[in-house]
Amino acid sequence: MSTAKKEYKRITTKTLVDMKQQGEKIAMLTAYDFTMAKIVDNAGIDVILVGDSASNVMAGHETTLPITLDQMIYHASSVIRAIERSLVVVDLPFGSYQSDPKEALRSAIRIMKESGAHAVKLEGGKEVKESIKRILNAGIPVMGHLGLTPQSIYKFGTYSVRAKEKEEAEKLKEDAQMLERLGCFAVVLEKVPAKLAGEIAQAIQIPVIGIGAGGGVDGQVLVMHDMLGMTHEFSPRFLRRYLDLFQEMSKAFQNYITDVKKGDFPNESEQY
Residue 228 in 3-state DSSP? Predict the structure, then answer.
């Protein structure tokens, strides 16, 4: 499989499909604010996910459930103002699409109009089929999300690997194929066996982005705060930490405090 990286001035939903066809892996990260999104976009990331994980890493909630549609729009708007290249996908938060397709469409329209985002993402398969159809019929691109779906954590009762049993694995395959038929441009698979995820990626033409789904899929996504080592207490098997910012930032803050206490900051060259 080719590892060549083509230069794209702007990533679109079609770009991602082309990347899959050409064998180029898709790199995706979360971002929730202007400053971090600007750095990530400038680094050349393909997709920025304004995830409902903001509920955890930005607001300190135990789950993703408490974050509201207004808060997601706020974070998405901040990210959109920073980007020049990346495709920006925004999570529809819990309660904004599950029970009523009309409400799902209203939520998606608000995200697109008020934030300027490029696409929305929502969790689930057949159970949210009508919501997905309604959003797609309005011309709004949709990214699916299957496997471990954090908004359903109280239903599952655990964050353990999904689809290890045959029945659930078959449903996962069927849901992925359904999402493709409906017109979704990509699907995230979270915390599922690598072999199964690879089979699904081979079975459908749209990109499959994995998180804890092995290397046989078409791309990977991580939460930025996790891969930068800012959330040091979170250590799932699939997480690779590229920095230890918890330690680095702690040192910087301690050095600043020391310098202020000693009267060393500001020095003569740092004042007017």
Answer: coil
d(C-alpha 162, C-alpha 59), whole Å: 27
Whole-number pLDDT of residue 2: 43
Greatest Cα-to-Cα distance within the chain, rounded to the nearest angstrom: 70
- Examine the pLDDT at 113 and tell me if it is beyond 50: yes
Give one DSSP letter per residue of 70-134, joined into a string. HHHHHHHHHHHTT-SSSEEEEEPPTTSSSS-HHHHHHHHHHHHHHH--SEEEEE-SGGGHHHHHH
Task: Give the three-class secondary structure for 51.
Answer: coil
Is the CB of residue 63 less than 8 Å from the CB of residue 55?
yes
Contact residues for 134 (Cβ-Cβ < 8 A; gap 6+): 101, 102, 104, 105
Asked whether the predicted pLDDT for residue 159 surpasses 90, the reply is: no
Q: What is the pLDDT of residues 60-82, one digit of tens each?
A: 999 999 999 999 999 999 999 99
Question: How many Cβ atoms are within 10 Å of 202's Cβ, its own excluded?
Answer: 11
- Is the preceding omega at residue 266 within 30 degrees of 0, hence cis? yes
Which residue among the candidates 24, 190, 268, 270 is catalytic per the annotation? 190
Q: Is 24 a catalytic residue?
A: no
**Angle, to 10 degrees, between the axis of helix 194-203 and the axis of helix 166-182?**
30
Domains and CATH numbers, the chain: 13-241 (3.20.20.60), 246-272 (no CATH)
- Tell me the two tokens of residue 211: 């998180």
pLDDT at 266: 97
- The whole-number average pLDDT for the span 161-179 is 90
Total-model pTM? 0.93
pLDDT at 24 over 60: yes
